[in-house]
Amino acid sequence: MQRKNQLKNDYIIGVKCMYNKMLIPSNIKQNDIFSETMSFLNKENDNDQLLKCFVEGKICSKYLYFNDEITNSYLKMIMSSSYSLLNDSHKLFLLYSNSIIEQVLTVQKPVRIICLGAGNAKKETAFIDKIVKNINYKPEVWLIDISSEMLRIGYENIMNTLEERINAIDLSIMQMDFHDLDNCETSFSEKCNVILLLGNTLGNFDDSFLHLLYSYINIGDFVVIDNQLKQYGKLSMLDENALLKIYDNEIYSSYMYSVLKQFDIVRTDGYIHTYISYESKYENSDCAVVNKDFIFTKDKQLSLGSNMFYAKNGFGLNLLVSKKYTLGCLRLMVSQHFDVINTFAENQYALITAQKKQI
Ligand SMILES: C[S@@+](CC[C@H](N)C(=O)[O-])C[C@H]1O[C@@H](n2cnc3c(N)ncnc32)[C@H](O)[C@@H]1O
């Protein structure tokens, strides 16, 4: 308990002020919702975490979205014609969100919708809108993201969709690393928590992330996850090429270089290597992983906050992993911690609803 309070204090930097200062879109009047916005970032901790990433040769996912420039470069990339995954994920979610909501509303407790890695919150907003139309109380909604720019855009989408019904939700906007969720001033108790982890976000992590999610929430709470799928077995050369085409192109590279810019790494320092590997944790070769590594072609000294790091010629820094599971593997992974209730799958995407079970 003491540790939690200690961390809570360390984490709160400038509660409210940053939104009041820079994040309110011009067409939106400052109101009570923004005054409840919280930022939970720990700069000291970040410096050490960043150095650890470089020493281990693998960047944490949050650095893929951290500042406004990166966020905008990411959004430009996902809106480009080469990135087809966005449409698949939207289509699937809109088709099946009613069934998920029906399931959630069978629980006799008020709901708390937790949008983890909310991004532009388009799907999340559609979900909130439908929930609000089906209940006669004010649901709690937590919009959580590491990127303040994403939160701004997500908030704008919620405002534009709900309009005057914005007062029908009890909204908290939190800028934080969702790995720190249990350290902040939040309580998961009393309500039925519905965690939305959408947009292939799970695929950026290993499956220990599901364990973390499990540890946050209560028995009977829901998780709704969507992720890209693959067919059983190793991909054919044709399918590998089709997958690589989504990730290995100039617009994706521009996004990756905007990520590298925060560490003062530029194009002339090396090159980005995009490749597919396979993991077979649950069934043979059941996960295809798209990797993007930056390979240094010269020695370079980097200042990482208060730390220095020497990258040698040939050093490889893993920037991104994006995992694609078979439907069977995804279900199996989720069912290690949760009871899978619904599985919807179309083409390349799956949407799973599950409830925390006692194990
Ligand atoms: C792939 S996008 C998905 C966005 C949205 N949910 C959707 O379905 O389109 C992942 C989102 O998670 C956020 N994110 C990634 N790692 C995070 C972390 N460690 N903590 C908080 N947010 C994170 C990113 O900023 C980004 O908005």
Please write out the topology.
Blueprint: H1 2-11, H2 17-23, H3 32-35, E1 38-40, H4 43-56, H5 68-79, H6 85-104, E2 111-116, H7 122-134, E3 140-145, H8 148-162, E4 170-176, E5 192-197, H9 208-216, E6 222-228, H10 237-247, H11 250-261, E7 270-279, E8 287-296, E9 300-304, E10 307-311, E11 316-325, H12 327-335, E12 338-346, E13 349-356
Parallel strand pairs: 1-4, 2-3, 2-5, 3-4, 5-6
Antiparallel strand pairs: 6-13, 7-8, 8-11, 9-10, 12-13
Helix pairs in contact: 5-11, 6-7, 7-8
The structure holds S-adenosylmethionine.
The site of S-adenosylmethionine has 18 residues, from loops.
Description:
The protein is of the alpha/beta class. It folds into two domains: 2-47 and 84-230 and 327-356, Vaccinia Virus protein VP39 (Rossmann fold, 3-Layer(aba) Sandwich), CATH 3.40.50; 48-79 and 234-325, no CATH class. The chain is built from twelve helices and 13 strands. It has helices spanning 2-11, 17-23, 32-35, 43-56, 68-79, 85-104, 122-134, 148-162, 208-216, 237-247, 250-261, 327-335, and strands spanning 38-40, 111-116, 140-145, 170-176, 192-197, 222-228, 270-279, 287-296, 300-304, 307-311, 316-325, 338-346, 349-356. The strands form three sheets. Strands 1-4-3-2-5-6-13-12 form an eight-stranded mixed β-sheet, with helices on both faces. The chain has a three-stranded antiparallel β-sheet with strand order 7-8-11. It has a two-stranded antiparallel sheet with strand order 9-10. Helix 8 links the parallel strand 3 and strand 4 (170-176). Helix 5 packs antiparallel against helix 11 (250-261), helix 6 (85-104) runs parallel beside helix 7 and helix 7 (122-134) runs parallel beside helix 8. The two termini are 24 Å apart. Residues 1-35 have low confidence and may be disordered. The protein binds S-adenosylmethionine.
